[in-house]
Design brief:
Elements: H1 2-12, H2 17-34, H3 36-61, E1 66-69, E2 72-75, H4 95-145, H5 148-153, H6 156-174, H7 176-198, H8 200-225, H9 228-245, H10 247-252, H11 256-308, H12 315-334, H13 336-357, E3 379-388, E4 391-404, E5 409-413, H14 420-427, E6 435-440, E7 443-444, H15 450-455, E8 457-460, H16 471-476, H17 484-493, H18 497-502, H19 520-532, E9 538-542, H20 550-564, E10 568-572, E11 584-589, E12 592-597, H21 599-605, H22 608-622, H23 636-651, H24 659-665, H25 670-700, H26 706-759, H27 762-766, H28 772-786, H29 791-814, H30 816-841, H31 845-850, H32 852-863, H33 865-871, H34 874-928, H35 932-955, H36 959-974, E13 996-1004, E14 1012-1021, E15 1026-1030, H37 1037-1044, E16 1052-1057, E17 1060-1061, H38 1067-1072, E18 1074-1077, H39 1088-1093, H40 1103-1112, H41 1116-1120, H42 1139-1152, E19 1157-1161, H43 1169-1183, E20 1187-1191, E21 1203-1208, E22 1211-1216, H44 1218-1224, H45 1227-1234
Parallel strand pairs: 5-10, 5-11, 8-9, 9-10, 15-20, 15-21, 18-19, 19-20
Antiparallel strand pairs: 1-2, 3-4, 3-6, 6-7, 11-12, 13-14, 13-16, 16-17, 21-22
């Protein structure tokens, strides 16, 4: 019990007494609503009896010797007429008056249903809306209180989906679904009650078989919900993921076709499971219908015995019992999808409430902690050790000690990842250190009030985050309640005033999402103004000018120099020119402050600072702009988040794909589709046949001759059995045939889609939208969605058409007048069917649109949480979010009313239809002598087909979704890659020499167009020579290799290969001449031999060659020592092997290719000394007689290269042999003599 109590508490813990009251009243209404259908059966039963007695009377009175006196039939001579078994026959039924009364009953029930179902929905939905609103507010507020470390461990995307999807799931579970569940259960109970009141024997017989129906209905629901295809697809998905994650390796070794084959082989399992699933659903459907028809046969046969032989039942109570129990069984089955919603809501609630109950370690909303009266600005770091919570195994700061004096400018320098930015984040108290303390003016900052502490600090980051509002508002974020004059003053100090005044709207200009409308320099200056307006005691400049070009840098730098005066300033530097005039320079390495002093003191030490200066000076003497030596920092993450947000917008509105094109892909399966359609046609005609048989049974009760009556009933029951068997097979046929054609289509689409992905140029994969994860999901889900637009859809259409067609033919044939009357209601009945189907899926999707505004606030807030925390602006975002929630909340309440009305209308329309049509039917029976059984036949034929139609539309997988998925798919198929890997495009030539020239190459990565990677690279290498690139990370060494492989083409300039410009060369041909060994070699999840054979995908490499290559790579002995030798599996990404072993397999793989050009990208950097020597000798072996480009990181490994090129900021600053460069005493000389680290 505690489990359920806990569950209810979870669900409704945010309910006020008012909500509880609404939910209780709503539940009562649902109970009453549930009893309506069984009530209707009572009326229906009475009505049947009336019709039957009337019919008997009519038949008796056909004899001219009988007449009706005092409601009893007499002979014309006045004696009472008695039937064979000595009973009298009553007469004088006023059929129209009776029917009018029944019509009023129906209308009464209908109105009752309209009212209670309206309240049932309105109360539940609005109570749920209020609770959801409360949960959203509480959750967002709590998330904004969390410390930054928590955000490192929870991705922003995940939090956003939690705010939208998970809370919607909770909403679904506590809204209409509960009331519908109660209503269904109530129908279940009342249905049985009606049955027992009518006749307990028959009820027991039907109950005995009804579990079979309930089970079938439940199984149907379950079978739909299985997620098994995805697990079956998992293997192929893993292949796709592995290939797409290591796309560069696949491209370099030309393995595209081989991978497509491998992927296709793994798709078979998913295909088989899909067919299995289709067949299972077919069997279930068939079983359900078969059981239902057999039940009909049994119940009518036994029931008619009770009516005719023992006279226990009237025909009316037979119908009442039978339908009562049937209704109960079906409703029990349909209640199961609601449980599904409860379960997912409960799971979602668990994660949401866990967050709500979590206490943040650093709570920015708390008022605890001191506020000092006077702040000088002395900072001290004392024995600080620190790990990021998301990477507890990497020590970022290692026992760091340092002091920063008030009023001085301190500069931090050091390679990437040495902990410079981390110290800044500790000063802002985004994190607390594991060990050690940070002191401000001698106070431990953990004892100070957070909001107050952060208000002392102004920070300007490398990638400043602006919010999507005006310039003035962005500056105002710096400090609450500033005047316009102060804003202007701050803008002037930040050198921003002039450019702002040139904009048309001046300070009211919108900066766009993430400041997208502004240039880097402009954003930077607005951020500086925002920092200045705080009048901070401590100014933190984290690479504040790195992203700028020279001109804007000078301007921004000047602004920074002006404002540094008299404040404690910490500047993380990247261009040494900007920090020469700092008071103190602190050099960082591996999380320690290894050196401190002024510029000149540190140069004498020849340590970290010295290395950086050397590389940079050398660079700046040759190039106009001394760009960063620090390459891209880890902070690119932020830009990408912003880019994603801005770019996703326009993509969504895909034109739905034409169905014809989808079907074209399905053409080979036409026999299956034909079979399926045949099955569907048979299934469609089942309902109308049922209507005919059902009314026929009612008709037999008016037959006078008992023997004839029995014969007719037995005949009809046998017919029911035949229909049962046929429908079992046809349902199975429809399920199986369409599943087969659909799965073959899915497999074909997946294969084609995967091929299309592998055709794209590498730059396409850099786009965050095309990350391996996103692409694998697209393959998994889009393709299987498309199938919903073909097979099952066609089946659906055929089924519905035959259903309607047959029903109408029957109805018009037997009574066209009555048919016309009912047809007026048909659109309404169809609508109500559609509506009930919608009910099952719930109404949450409508919320999504109105939630978008709030969603934007939340995603902006979560995406830029650091900036917001730094500005201590969490509260204003929480307020703005809550404000944005008001509108959706109001619309949700309004929608609850509309929804309630629609629901009520849909529920009551069928009662109204019955009222009208039976009343008119009574008229026709009396005036035109229409046999009453035809009234039933026509009405049930049409009503049943209407309901079936509505229901059917629900079971079609989402058609619109399928078309959009298809559109995305075709968009991928139609995309023309910028670099074609076709075997026919471009030149090939006979004798490939391997001469390479880079002519003035300029290049930026497509995803980071603002960072110039190569700015005019000029270098050449003759066939057979070895060229070595040396330089710090991010100077463009690896990029030049990627241009050579034609993963990218240069923006300007050319790469010449044997004198041919690279963009005219056939790509597979070019790549087949190049072997590459990279720093982190990518191995595939197969055996060692297969990995080596991967080197040449154009042919099957013989084992001898593999062994030969392995020997050259010094790998053979190690492999022979393994138990399975060359058949040893290397594990995912080669995880079973050490780095040195992986490296040697990669070298063997490159040797098997027998390439003319060998590219070694830091091939030995990740190794310890021993394995390095082995690998190095293997490489020297492999280099013989080939053109070779080496990217070095240890200078010792490249001294014997023919040309050594020293690179900095995307250009070569000096080149020559080792001897020449040593004599020149330039940058290379300094690097070698000081032994300073490079990368």
């Amino acid at each position: 019990m505690t489990e359920t109590q806990h569950f209810l508490y979870l669900k409704f813990r945010f309910a006020t007494w008012r909500d509880t009251l609404m939910m209780v009243v709503g539940s009562l209404c649902a109970l009453i609503h549930g009893s309506a259908s069984p009530l209707m059966l009572l009326v229906y039963g009475m009505m049947t009896n009336t019709f039957v007695t009337y019919e008997v009377e009519v038949q008796e009175l056909k004899d001219p010797n009988k007449e009706c006196i005092n409601n009893t039939i007499h002979w014309t001579n006045g004696s009472i007429y008695e039937t064979t078994d000595n009973t009298t026959v009553s007469c004088g039924v006023n059929i129209e008056a009776q029917m009018t009364m029944f019509a009023y009953y129906y209308i009464g029930i209908g109105l009752g249903v309209l009212i209670v179902s309206y309240f049932q929905i309105v109360f539940w939905v609005s109570a749920a809306a209020r609770q959801t609103q409360k949960i959203r507010k509480t959750y967002f507020r709590k998330v904004m209180q969390m410390e930054i470390g928590w955000f490192d461990c929870n991705s922003v995307g995940e939090l956003n989906t939690r705010i939208s999807d998970d809370i919607n799931k909770i909403n679904n579970a506590i809204a209409d679904q509960v009331s519908i569940f109660i209503e269904r259960i109530s129908t279940f109970v009342f249905g049985f009650m009606v049955g027992f009141i009518g006749g307990w024997k028959l009820t027991l017989v039907v109950i005995a078989v009804s579990p079979l129906i309930g089970i079938a209905a439940g199984l149907m629901a379950v079978a739909r919900l299985t997620g098994r295809e995805l697990t079956a697809y998992a293997k192929a998905g893993a292949v796709a993921d592995e290939v797409l994650s290591s796309i560069r390796t696949v491209a370099a070794f030309g393995g595209e076709e081989r991978e497509t084959e491998r992927y296709d082989r793994n798709l078979i399992e998913a295909q088989n499971w899909g067919v299995k699933k289709g067949s299972i659903i077919g069997v279930f459907q068939g079983y359900l219908w078969c059981i239902i028809f057999l039940c009909y046969a049994l119940a009518f046969w036994y029931g008619s015995k009770l009516v005719i032989d023992t006279k226990e039942l009237t025909p009316g109570s037979l119908i009442q019992v039978f339908f009562g129990v049937l209704m109960a069984a079906m409703n029990l089955g349909q209640a199961s999808p609601c449980l599904e919603a409860f379960a997912s809501g409960r799971a979602a609630a668990k994660t949401i409430f866990e967050t709500i109950d979590r206490e943040p370690e650093i709570n920015c909303f708390s008022d605890d902690g001191h506020k000092l009266d006077k702040v000088k600005g002395d900072l001290e770091f004392h024995n600080i050790t620190f790990f990021y919570p998301s990477r507890p195994d990497v020590k970022i700061l290692d026992n760091l000690n340092m002091q920063i004096k008030a009023g001085e400018t301190t500069a931090f320098v050091g390679p990437s990842g040495s902990g410079k930015s981390t110290t800044i984040q500790l000063i802002q108290r985004f994190y607390d250190a594991e060990e050690g303390t940070v002191y401000l003016d001698g106070h431990d900052i953990r004892t100070l009030n957070i909001q107050w502490l952060r208000s002392l600090i102004g920070i300007v980051e490398q990638e400043p985050v602006l919010f999507a509002t005006t310039i003035a508002e962005n500056i105002r974020y710096g400090r609450p309640g500033v005047t316009t004059e102060e804003i202007i003053q701050a803008a002037k100090e930040a050198n921003a005033y002039n450019f702002v005044m040139t904009l048309p709207q001046k300070f009211d200009t919108l900066v766009g999402e993430c400041g997208g409308q502004m240039s880097g320099g402009q954003k930077q200056r607005i951020a500086i103004a925002r920092a200045l307006i705080r009048n901070p005691k401590i100014l933190l400049l984290d690479m504040a000018t790195s992203a700028l070009d020279n001109e804007s840098e000078a301007v921004v730098q000047e602004a920074l120099d002006n404002v540094r005066a008299g404040r404690t300033t910490i500047s993380i530097a990247h261009r040494l020119s900007t920090i020469r005039n700092a008071d103190v320079i602190v050099g960082f390495e591996h999380g320690r402050a290894v050196e401190r002093g002024t510029h000149s003191e540190l140069l004498e030490k020849q340590g970290v600072y010295f290395t950086l200066v050397t590389l940079q000076n050398q660079g700046s003497s040759n190039t106009p702009n001394g760009k960063t030596f620090e390459g891209y920092d880890s902070r690119l993450g932020f830009i990408q988040i912003c880019q994603q947000v801005t770019e996703e917008g326009p993509e969504e509105h895909e034109e739905p794909a034409p169905v014809a094109r989808i079907l074209k892909y399905n053409r080979p399966e036409w026999p299956y589709m034909l079979l399926g359609s045949l099955g569907a046609a048979v299934n469609g005609s089942v309902n109308p046949i049922y209507a005919v048989l059902f009314s026929q049974i009612l008709g037999t009760f008016a037959v006078q001759d008992l023997n004839q009556q029995r014969e007719e009933i037995n005949g009809i029951c046998i017919l029911f059995c035949i229909v049962a068997v046929i429908s079992f097979f046809s349902q199975f046929l429809q399920g199986y045939a369409f599943a087969k054609s659909g799965e073959l289509l899915t497999r074909r689409l997946r294969k084609v889609g995967f091929q299309a992905m592998l055709r794209q140029e590498i730059g396409w994969f850099d786009d965050p939208r095309n990350s391996p994860g996103a692409l694998t999901t697209r393959l998994a889900t889009d393709a299987s969605m498309v199938q919903g637009a073909t097979g099952s859809q066609i089946g659906m259409i055929v089924n519905s058409l035959t259903n309607i067609g047959a029903s109408f033919i029957i109805a018009f044939y037997f009574s066209w007048k009555l048919t016309l009357v009912i047809m007026c209601f048909l659109p309404l009945i169809g609508l109500s069917g559609v509506f009930q189907a919608k009910m099952l899926t719930g109404f949450a999707n409508k919320d999504k649109k109105s939630m978008e505004a709030a969603g934007q606030v939340s995603s902006e807030a979560l995406g830029n949480i650091r900036t917001i925390a730094g500005l201590a602006k969490e509260r204003s975002f929480v307020e703005s979010y809550e404000q944005k929630l008001e509108l959706p909340f109001k619309s949700a309440k309004k929608r609850a009313n509309i929804y309630g009305l629609c629901f009520g209308f849909a529920q009551c329309v069928i009662f109204m239809a019955y009222a009208a049509s039976f009343r008119y039917g009574g008229y026709l029976v009396r005036v035109e002598g229409l046999p009453y059984m035809l009234v039933f036949r026509v009405i049930s034929a049409i009503v049943i087909s209407g309901m079936a139609l509505g229901r059917a539309s629900s079971f079609t997988p989402d058609y619109a979704k399928a078309k959009i998925a298809a559109a995305q798919f075709f968009q991928l198929l139609d995309r023309v890659p910028k670099i074609s890997i076709n075997h026919t495009d471009g030149q090939k030539w006979e004798i490939f020499k391997g001469e390479i020239e880079f002519l003035n190459c300029k290049f930026t990565y497509p995803t980071r167009p603002d960072i110039q990677v190569l700015s005019g690279l000029v270098v050449s290498v003759k066939p057979g020579q070895t060229l070595a690139f040396v330089g710090s990370s991010g100077c463009g060494k690896s990029t030049s290799v990627q241009l050579l492989e034609r993963f990218y083409d240069p923006d300007e300039g050319q790469v010449l290969i044997d004198g041919h410009p690279s963009h005219t060369v056939n790509v597979p041909f070019l790549r087949s001449q190049i072997g590459i060994v990279s720093q982190e070699p990518v191995l595939f999840d197969c055996s060692i031999a297969e990995n080596i054979q991967y080197g040449d995908n154009t042919r099957t490499v013989a084992m001898e060659e593999v062994v030969e290559a392995a020997k050259k790579a010094h790998l053979h002995d190690f492999v022979m020592g393994l138990p399975n030798k060359y058949e040893t599996q290397v594990g995912a990404q080669g995880s079973q092997l050490s780095r040195g072993q992986k490296q040697r397999i990669a070298i063997a793989r490159a040797i098997v290719r027998n390439p003319k050009i060998l590219l070694l990208d830091e091939a030995t950097s990740a190794l310890d000394t021993e394995s390095e020597q082995t690998v190095q000798s293997a490489l020297d072996e492999a280099r013989k007689g080939r053109t070779c480009i080496v990217i070095a990181h240890r200078l010792s490994t490249i001294q014997n290269a023919d040309i050594i090129a020293v690179m900095s900021q995307g250009v070569v600053i000096e080149q020559g042999t080792h001897g020449k460069l040593m004599a020149k005493k330039g940058a290379y000389y300094k690097l070698v003599t000081t032994g300073a680290p490079i990368s």
